[in-house]
Amino acid sequence: KAGVTQTPRYLIKTRGQQVTLSCSPISGHRSVSWYQQTPGQGLQFLFEYFSETQRNKGNFPGRFSGRQFSNSRSEMNVSTLELGDSALYLCASSLAGQDNTEAFFGQGTRLTVV
Amino acid sequence: QKEVEQNSGPLSVPEGAIASLNCTYSDRGSQSFFWYRQYSGKSPELIMFIYSNGDKEDGRFTAQLNKASQYVSLLIRDSQPSDSATYLCAVKWSGGSYIPTFGRGTSLIVHP
Q1: Which of A97, A106, A108 sits opposite B98 (nearest CB)?
Q2: H/E element holding B28?
Q3: Any CB–CB contact under 8 A between A60 and chain B?
Q4: What is the tens place of the pLDDT at every residue in B23-78?
Q5: d(CA A93, CA A26)
Q6: Would the CB atoms of B44 and A90 count as touching at under 8 Å?
Q7: For strand B19-25 and strand B4-5, is the pairing parallel, antiparallel, or unpaired?
Q8: Interface mutation target, options A105, A109, A110, A112, chain B, most CBs of B under 10 Å
Q9: What pLDDT sits at residue B29?
């Protein structure tokens, strides 16, 4: 059974640019959550998608957005990049999300903004 | 504000010893508890989850949950250098979202 796949693995972008990250969840998983991880803040929740709808949202500015497709694959977009957006972006998939089942993480996308 | 607290460490133990990692949480409505291991530069990997009070064992790992005292711990028996990593505690609450809140993690170093 394939795990959670994130692409690309590494990205270098310039301030002001935008970036799109992709996440393919485990087959059969319908909930995809996105996290930002930095040394200073730890794992911070961005948003969760289920059945193509954003179901939960963390405390991030509107520059961070996402979407989910009918096959449960999800994309995350960050516009007008800032230096502080440099981080490891992780997505996690779970069966349905709003229950006690576990979430599995992808390998992450390491974003560096210069 | 729901919070999950972990001692950042590092916790240093000799090879073969028992490593004890602790996590406290703020909300009594917590439903489920997860331990993830994260090697440097890698993504978190699920080790164990526990829902009920008491102990849950899986190989060298034991998760202990005490809801009355609001803490969950992870014991690693016969620690190996390959266990050296950051261990993240995550807690899910009910009440509509079940979005896990993560602690900052405890760095574990197992020295030969």
Answers
A1: A97
A2: none
A3: no
A4: 999 887 778 899 999 999 899 999 999 988 899 999 999 999 999 999 999 999 99
A5: 7
A6: yes
A7: antiparallel
A8: A105
A9: 78
Q: What are phi and psi of A84, to 5 degrees?
A: -70, -5
Alpha-carbon distance of A49 to B19, in angstroms, equals 36
Q: Could you tell me the two tokens for A51? A: 């059945």
Q: What is the 3-state secondary structure (H, E, C) of A51-101?
A: CCEEEEECCCCCCEEEEECCCCCEEEEECCCCHHHCEEEEEEEECCCCCCC
Contacts of the segment A65-70: beta carbons below 8 A, 24+ positions apart? A66/A34, A68/A32
In the block, tokens 């959670």 appear at A4
Q: Are B99 and A103 in contact (CB < 8 Å)?
A: no
Biggest CA-to-CA distance, chain B: 46
Residue in chain A lying closest to B92 (CA):
A100
The answer to whether the beta carbons of residues B73 and B7 sit under 8 Å apart is no
